Amino acid sequence: MSLIFFQGLNCYSSCLVNAAVFTGADYREVFADLWSETDFTYDQVHRLYLSQRLPKNLASMEVSMRFINCCSGWEIKEKVVGMPMGQLLIVGMDAFFIPWVPFYQTMHSFHYFIARKENEMLFSCFDPTYDKQNLEITEEHLIAYASDICRIDKSVKKTFSVDIRQEAQKILETHPETQEKLLAQIMECSHGKQKNGELLAKYIDALSNNRYLYLHYLQTMPLPGEQCDQCFHKEFFRKWAAVKHGLFKASLNMDNQFLICEVCEYFKELIAEEMSIARKLHDLPTV
Predict the structure, then answer these.
(1) From the CB of residue 148, how many other CB atoms can be counted at a distance below 10 Å?
(2) Cα gap 43→240, rounded to integer Å
(3) Contact 281/228 with Cβ under 8 angstroms?
(4) Are residues 17 and 146 in the same domain?
(5) Is 30 a domain residue?
(6) How far is CA 154 from the centre of its chain?
(7) How many CB atoms lie within 10 A of CB 124?
(8) Where are the beta strands (DSSP E) in the chain?
(9) What range defines the domain where residue 277 resides?
(10) What is the pLDDT of residues 245-265, one digit of tens each?
(11) How far apart are CA 159 and CA 147, in angstroms?
(12) CA 231, CA 221: separation in Å to the nearest integer?
């Protein structure tokens, strides 16, 4: 199976998309409304923001997700042992216990990968983050060290349809409010709340990741040849990275007023640019 790599995407979301591909679902359509997403889920355990729309969209595209209670030793054993051959899983495990990752037996860091049951003793594994496949892990090892397991199955396909013009219209409607709210939160980081900068940086990272995925969706559409590159170019993503890194730096510095002002200017430029992109895409003929 060929793995798909998405620049900047966290290991959980990357596994989710690749597992969907393994089921035969057309994953590209699930990115169609990620540009306008602003209401993320904050994962307290792994301290990052996750898309709420991505799993919902995948559910509409015949991908069912069922989580196993990994807090119960007997339940995880019962569920894993009883799985049919070929069952796909997204597994979260301390990287200290994952043989193929750089942190194996040296450092504790949570990581996700895809596992498929091959027989009563063995799972084959796929890791999109490191572009590794044809890996193996024993059933005993998975049961002993997995702390998060999501079972992936095919389900009944539901209606899911978002076109480029609809998504552009959402951006035009919601971006002014998005700018106002985020600028206010960013400015607070220069008034004694610099520690908030770290959380905001992770939120900005989630926004940026969604734009990478939305660009991938656009590149599958019959747009004019240069349209995607003009809309979401390298400098555009460098600005998003500058906002993120600026907020991380601001979170470590009490005297951060100048840095926060720079971050605000970059962010306002990005919002203005995205409004311009949305107007161009909104005016395209319906695809």
Answers:
(1) 17
(2) 22
(3) no
(4) yes
(5) no
(6) 21
(7) 16
(8) 41-43, 48-50, 63-68, 88-94, 110-117, 122-127, 132-138, 146-154
(9) 164-282
(10) 999 999 998 889 999 999 999
(11) 33
(12) 14
Please check whether residues 176 and 277 belong to one and the same domain: yes
CA distance 213 to 61: 16
Q: How many other CB atoms are found less than 10 A from the CB of residue 121?
A: 10
Q: Could you tell me the two tokens for 37?
A: 């997403």
* DSSP states along 46-72: TTEEE-SHHHHHHHHTTEEEEEE-TT-
With beta carbons less than 8 A apart as the criterion, state whether 226 and 253 touch: no
Q: Are 168 and 134 in a shared domain?
A: no
What is the bridge-based pairing of β-strands 110-117 and 132-138?
unpaired
Judge if 119 and 184 occupy the same domain. no
Q: Distance between CA 284 and CA 137 in Å, rounded?
A: 49
- Return d(Cα 285, Cα 224) in angstroms, integer: 11
Which residues, other chains included, contact 256 with Cβ-Cβ below 8 Å and sequence gap of 6+? Answer: 189, 190, 194, 197, 249, 250
Nearest 5°: phi and psi at 121? -115, -15
**Cα separation, 231 vs 270, whole angstroms:** 12
Record the pTM. 0.85
Q: Could you report the per-residue pLDDT of 91-119, keeping only the tens digit for each?
A: 999 999 999 999 999 999 899 999 999 99
- Tokens 């019962």, located at residue: 78
The tokens describing 110, both together, are 């949570």
Same domain, 112 and 143: yes
Distance of CA 23 to the CA centre of its chain: 19
How many domains would you assign to the chain?
2
